[in-house]
Write a structure and sequence with these properties.
With 245 residues, the protein is of the alpha/beta class. The chain is built from seven helices and nine strands, in the order αββαβββαβαβαβαβα.
Length: 245
């Protein structure tokens, strides 16, 4: 039993250490008054998504007053990749909207992201001026955080992502008395061959029925990727959610 506890503690420390590895785009002003946490897709890293956004956007995806954090998920065995070790926010039983969630990995990961949020709060950032988001699996994790674990944050964006049917997120929203949830920004490519467009559209409609307010943007020729127009729209949305103060 003691060896099992030591092993569990070792894994927790390893996960925390890996999540602490951040790529950061600093605000261009001397002080940041808001924060964005951008989570990468499965198999990626924070550095990879930061650089791909810079290439697509044509310059650094940056703001005068907003610090952007790109954390890297811990490595874990990922079932859809035949158990290979990958940087993923949680495990999936299958990349299928009807598959059950792997709560044994979602919930511990939420605790790690909570620590990252709390770190920004300790730096003096109002929780309402922290936005969470991501691409693909990172967007799914952001939806978990904003509508289940940390609904007090300022906003959620989810790009080419989805929630499983029967997600604990829907259950939490149905039983909550809170109606002041963060606004949602979602985008999806109609030609997405990894996360079908219909999954993203269904997720948005289900969240909207549960009183989540937001916007869903469709990109007819886009596959499972990001595009410049999408990032321009996200940049504009973030400025609306997190204006300079």
């Amino acid at each position: 039993m003691k060896s099992q506890k030591r092993g569990l503690r070792h894994r927790e420390l390893r996960m925390s250490s890996q999540l602490a590895h951040l790529s950061v785009v600093a605000q261009t002003n001397a002080k940041h008054t808001a924060s964005v946490i951008f989570m990468h897709g499965s198999g990626g890293t924070g550095s990879m998504v930061k650089e791909s956004m810079k290439i697509l956007f044509g310059r650094n995806f940056s703001f005068p007053h907003i610090r952007i954090l790109y954390p890297t998920a811990p490595e874990r065995s990922y079932t859809p990749s035949f158990g290979m070790q990958q940087h993923v926010w949680f495990n999936r039983h299958d990349v299928e909207i009807s598959a059950p969630e792997d709560l044994s990995t979602v919930e511990p990961m939420a605790e790690e992201i909570n620590r990252l949020i709390d770190q920004e709060v300790r730096l003096g950032i109002d929780i309402k001026r922290i936005v969470l988001g991501g691409f693909s699996m990172g967007g799914s994790m952001a939806l978990q955080m904003g509508y289940r674990f940390r609904p007090e944050v300022g906003g959620i964006f989810s790009l080419s992502s989805f929630l499983n049917r029967g997600s604990k997120v829907y259950e939490a929203l149905k039983t909550s008395q809170d109606t002041n949830y963060p606004p949602l920004f979602m985008c999806h490519g109609e030609r997405d061959d990894v996360v079908p467009y219909e999954w993203g559209d269904e997720t948005f409609r289900d969240l909207r029925e549960l009183q989540i307010k937001g916007e869903f943007h469709t990109f007819p020729r886009m596959f499972h990727t990001l595009c410049k127009k999408e990032l321009e729209m996200l940049h504009h949305w973030l400025l609306q959610i997190l204006p300079e103060v």
